[in-house]
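Design request, tokens follow.
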């Protein structure tokens, strides 16, 4: 006895099978795209990390006066940094590798630099190294001026050419101008200072109404220039040329030295030394004996 096949049921079954096949195919494609995108993401992340490492090694090599003038190619792939190019001596070859290893650690550094005794420094790289050195000196001078209580907020600009430092801008008085020049000369790498600072005294200073304030700044500069005192812990009061020193110093000797420095400044008529010694165990022991 034969059974009749319901055409409607057959069509429904075929539709379900087709739908299942399409769903399986779509899931397969979606999974493939996820894997593909994940690989692309990892590749982009590794490329970015390699670029950062290359830049760090390049910057470190450029900061070396003995290596920076030579054209050294840096290739970072995976966990390996490769140095390529030509240098004139084994000493420079080894120095370049040591710098790269210090920066790229724990990555491996392959030194493929060739030693060619007659190779000359790259003129463009040499000029770049020179300019970087000048910018470093400019930054150091500006930092020294910023730390000084009398110059930190002044309009002073710094330009360096070779070992010559040029100061431009305006200051309140001649003492400020001399103090800025002394600070610049004391900076490492500065051989000479040209001071184009303009003394721009305010009307109050010209009229003499702020003479005490101006004298206080001169005293502060004189104490700071001695490189002995932390002037931030000291207070300088001036009243018609009569000076009062207050605050903390490290020893009685410093208190006496501060008084002597202040007395040697022009326009000081009288000095009251109220400086206190913060801590002096040696003197305390002597007092007890």
């Amino acid at each position: 006895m034969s059974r009749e096949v319901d055409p409607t049921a057959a069509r429904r079954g075929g539709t379900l099978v087709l739908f299942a096949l399409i769903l399986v195919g779509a899931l397969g494609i979606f999974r493939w795209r996820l894997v593909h995108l994940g690989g692309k993401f990892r590749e982009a992340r590794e490329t970015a990390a390699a670029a950062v490492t290359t830049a760090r090694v390049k910057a470190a090599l450029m900061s070396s006066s003995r290596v920076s003038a030579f054209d050294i190619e840096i290739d970072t792939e995976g966990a390996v940094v490769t140095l390529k190019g030509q240098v004139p001596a084994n000493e420079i070859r080894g120095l370049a590798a040591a710098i790269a290893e210090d920066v790229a650690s724990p990555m491996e550094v392959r030194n493929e630099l060739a030693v060619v005794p007659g190779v000359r420094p790259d003129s463009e790289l040499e000029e770049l190294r020179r300019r970087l050195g000048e910018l470093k000196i400019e930054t150091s001078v500006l930092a020294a001026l910023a730390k000084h209580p009398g110059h930190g907020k002044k309009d002073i600009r710094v330009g360096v050419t070779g070992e010559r430092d040029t100061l431009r801008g305006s200051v309140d008085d001649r003492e400020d101008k001399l103090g800025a020049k002394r600070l610049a000369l004391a900076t490492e790498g500065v051989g000479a200072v040209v001071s184009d600072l303009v003394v721009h005294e305010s009307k109050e200073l010209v009229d003499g109404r702020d003479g005490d304030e101006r004298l206080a700044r001169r005293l502060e500069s004189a104490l700071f220039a001695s490189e002995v005192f932390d002037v931030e812990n000291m207070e300088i009061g001036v009243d018609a040329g009569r000076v009062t020193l207050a605050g903390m110093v490290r020893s009685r000797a410093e208190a006496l030295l501060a008084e002597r420095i202040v007395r040697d400044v022009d326009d000081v008529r009288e000095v009251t030394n109220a400086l206190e010694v913060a801590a002096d165990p040696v003197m305390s022991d002597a007092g007890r004996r």
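Comment from the thread starter after seeing the answer: thanks! The longest helix spans residues 7-62.
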